[in-house]
Design brief:
By secondary structure, this protein is mainly α. The protein has one domain. The protein has three helices and four strands, in the order ααββαββ. Strand 1 and strand 2 form a beta hairpin. The two termini are 37 Å apart.
């Protein structure tokens, strides 16, 4: 497996496993549960303003994530990952073929 694919796969697994891993740590480590819970909530922080369809306030002062909120967050993060990878790939292809945005077009030819 090429190195770039392995790195992309590892990042994708980290995106998908982040909330589950920290939820498991919060349940397993009662002494530091609030720290692990905070790291789990950081995953959903950009979407927490949406409110009741995706999230609701928990009784202990945190954020209770609904199943639709989990699905939305995963979809959003995977979409952002896909867009970033596409931009990086386009940049690499353009550089490999010598096409730059700063190239000047004269007489129908790129110089």
């Amino acid at each position: 497996m090429p190195r770039t694919i392995a790195i992309r796969l590892a990042i994708l697994v980290a995106i998908l496993a982040w909330p589950g891993f920290f939820a498991w740590l919060a349940a397993a480590d009662e002494a530091r549960g609030s720290i692990w819970s905070t790291l789990q909530q950081a995953y959903y922080l950009p979407f927490s303003w949406v409110g009741p369809p995706l999230f609701r306030l928990a009784t202990e002062g945190g954020l209770a994530v609904q199943p639709t909120g989990r699905a939305f967050a995963v979809f959003f993060y995977v979409l952002v990952f896909y867009v970033v990878v596409r931009i990086i790939d386009r940049h690499k292809l353009a550089r490999a073929y010598g096409k730059r945005k700063s190239a000047v077009v004269r007489d129908g030819r790129i110089r």
